[in-house]
Amino acid sequence: MSSLFSRDSWSEILEALSTNWFRTILTAFGVLWGIFILVVLLAAGKGLENGVKSDFDGIATNTMFMWTQTISKPYKGLPKGRRFSYKIGDVQAIKDNVPNMRFVSPRNQLGGFGGSNNVVRGLNAGAFNVYGDYPEIIEQQPMDITSGRFINYGDINEKRKVAVIGEGVKTSLYAIGEDPIGTYIKINGVNFSVIGTYKKKGQGGDSEEDQKEIYVPFTSFSQAFNRGDRVGWMAITAEDGSSITELKTQVFDVIKQRHTIHPDDDRAIGNFDLYEQYSRIEGLFFALKIIAYFVGTLVLLSGIIGISNIMLIVVKERTKEIGIRRALGATPWSIRGQVLLESIFLTIISGMAGISLGALVIYAINSVLDATGPVDMFMNPSVDISVVMTALIILIVSGLFAGFIPAQNAIRVKPVDALRTE
């Protein structure tokens, strides 16, 4: 075994592969290209995955948003086509009857896209989304507080008329460099004191509209705008380890029972399941990774076949040499080992060159992205070290397979027949 790794063995390998160097380079290129394609495809998939998942950055993905719709089935003497509203009591009922609830946040809303000017400060006015929320909403839709603070339970319990405004609202209503903390804005004619500013992050949080929102305590919102105990919609987050997708049917059942809705009426309650959408994206990128491995392996396989063919030719060209070695007492294992070692060596060298070339291309792409800024839905393409290790294992196994048939042919050569070969 040790003779396989002696200096003479390596000298023989280098001499055999350099005898016809142009043929060796062409053969090695097949493996190089296969590994290069595999690395680049995986890096591109990772870059796309990073870009898409950055939209969910910091967001509690195990969350569902739920609102009311028109009831589509008559039930217990009540007609279809009627509307209903969530009540503040529904929040506690969900917490009491559905397990593994982390947050159940009631929300109310004023304004909307294309609405009339509903917020005024001095001579400046604008149309903004205004939300009545509980403090937990910052855990479900994270934002960076850029000055001041977010609403807290003191604000909720005392129904304080305070507001947290987005950086876009600040730009619209305040002069450059002016500090909004402690100033007042009028929302639909009601004065609110500004206690903080924020910048949204995740799920498109860099867009202009996401920075033009205002958050006020749920209780003061209800009091100021005559909402009573009504709730416009809810943001519901399950505990880690529990899927909101699996729990939402229980949530719907609680609401249907409290509002006399037919148990089979699936249209009465609208919802957007963020966890379900995120799971689909996870599944998509897993499929893309499988495709990348499949395509890269097929390309690599063509290179391995090329190496196997070349090794067959090499063995044919060295028939007389092999015969002499056999006549001098070389064992079948030493002959087989020499051919396998040459095959593995050529495969690994060409494969490592492919990995290096792929790494250079990835480095160049990242350098361009760093210089020009991130591209929408694509950022930081990279390949995990485990992928490189997997590629090395594939190369070693591939080298063994590529050299196996030529090695078997080599040990079948009889010394007498080989010595007759011209």
Tell me about this structure.
The protein has 422 residues and is an alpha+beta fold. It has two domains: 2-56 and 279-420, no CATH class; 63-274, no CATH class. It contains 13 helices and 14 strands. It has helices spanning 7-18, 21-53, 88-97, 137-140, 153-157, 167-173, 218-224, 244-258, 274-317, 319-327, 332-372, 385-412, 415-420, and strands at 63-68, 86-87, 101-110, 119-121, 124-126, 129-133, 143-148, 162-166, 184-187, 190-200, 213-217, 230-231, 233-238, 269-273. The strands form two sheets. Strands 1, 3, 4, 5, 6, 7, 8, 9, 10, 11, 13 and 14 form a twelve-stranded mixed beta sheet that branches. Strands 2-12 form a two-stranded antiparallel ribbon. α2 packs antiparallel against α9 (274-317), α2 (21-53) packs across α11 (332-372) and α11 (332-372) packs antiparallel against α12 (385-412). The protein is elongated and about 105 Å long. The chain crosses the membrane at residues 21-44, 290-315, 344-365, 385-405. It is found in: Cell membrane. Residues 294-414 form the ABC3 transporter permease C-terminal domain. This is Multidrug ABC transporter ATP-binding protein.
Question: Which features characterize this protein?
Answer:
Macrolide_Exporter_MacB; single chain; Multidrug ABC transporter ATP-binding protein; ATP binding; 2 domains; transmembrane; two-stranded antiparallel ribbon; alpha+beta; 52% helix; 422 residues
